Amino acid sequence: MHHAKHAAAGGPPNRRPHPTAALALAALSLSATLLAAPARAQSVPVPVQPPTAQRGLPDFTDLVEQVGPAVVNIRTTERVRGGQRGGPEMDEDMQEFFRRFFGQPPGGSTPPGSRPDPRNPRQGPEEEQQRGVGSGFIFTADGYVMTNAHVVEGADEVYVTLTDKREFKAKIIGTDKRTDVAVVKIDVSGGLPYVKIGDVSKLRVGEWVMAIGSPFGLDNTVTAGIVSAKARDTGEFVAFIQTDVAINPGNSGGPLINMRGEVVGINSQILSRSGGFMGVSFAIPMDEAVRVADQLRATGRVVRGRIGVQIGEVTKDVAESLGLGRTSGALVRAVEAGGPAEKGGVEAGDIITRFDGRTVERSSDLPRMVGNTRPGTKSTLQVFRRGQTRDLNVAVAEIEPERSRRAMAPENGPTPPASAAAGVLGLTLSNLAEDAKRELKVKGGVRVESVDGAAARAGLREGDVILSVANTEVLDIKQFEAALAKLDKSKPVNVLFRRGDWAQYALIRPVK
User: Fold this and answer.
1) Catalytic residue among 93, 135, 150, 214
2) Contacts of 64 (CB under 8 A, 6+ apart)
3) Which residue among the candidates 135, 214, 228, 252 is catalytic per the annotation?
4) What is the pTM of this model?
């Protein structure tokens, strides 16, 4: 109030010409002079044209009126026994913050779904307790609402409040933790306002966008900013839209809106050291969200494809040493026994460069491509193996919970070590025992018995099994020596090796 009164009491502003207006006047005056000049003045150099007038800041008022009625507040509750509450009362936004960023309510509250202990007399009758707040938006006229999975996760009841203050109990249709998308349904007589879905492929970095939500429980809050980056890879299943729109706890699940009034994303995460907004927020692209929502509405769950590989990044050193050309693709570190990839001929150490004709730029691209493929589809993988590219056909299966990986069984006693050829790299090797070959499902290889010098600096250690050297497959020590003898010992050499169930590359650099 003090600042408002101070501003109101201030005198009239100084009447100075605006810089842009002054520039325009100067340009106009110059043009008039040139037009009035005689014909002999044609040799005068043409003046630099003034810059185009800057466009004014965007006006979001019409967008708010257009989209605002379709944005909702989502309140969740859980049923607890009186006496289960732990610690002092805490407001809704802080409860949502602790639950989102720390995984459980503060104060040691009983987890949702737990049952009262009959031996504890302090546990009273069951009652409904506020659990968290978030945002969402209506995307169909018959009451389907899209939000984040983490907003409704673990809730016993979900309440949706419209901008006209009507509140409805909602039914959870389905949730998908991988993309953090959820769909809930409210039953309302008559039509409802709903959003238009935008084309994410047309979204441009630097474009103005707006968010509407309930940060800290404050309904119908509008914030705006620009798109900072597209397809931001944060290690999640989704490649996010990054913005600088102010997003805080309670905004989760609300829409990200372009200047045409279309929803292009669902506000989901922030990058923060304080728990509050620090200029970096992430939204789930609507093309991915719609795919998920359609499946949730149809079956209540999302079906994804899998091919049965564990993958890793392709580093610059590995790409150069293998002759791949550029740092791209997904390195196959392990192949699931009996899985689609193994049946299709994929081997540990392969680098998958294309999937169904689409380039795999980063390793994180592959799970998204495969996941969005319908199970049962016959897909083509392009792999780079020992200096050559080949196409493999793989039948995509349905994704399932990750299986526990078995550790590699130790070999029987080592066979005689390799000669001095391997010693140049700091390696002492032995042929791989037959039972180890069966365990690893490989034709052969050499086992590292001891490691020193250049090989140790490259990360190799005792127990590793080397499968190839400089893109040449090695089945035993004899082949290892032959491959090594052809190499320039003064240059780095790449080796493909297995460590347990994982395959990876190392670049051994000789001492200069």
Assistant:
1) 150
2) 210, 212, 222
3) 252
4) 0.62
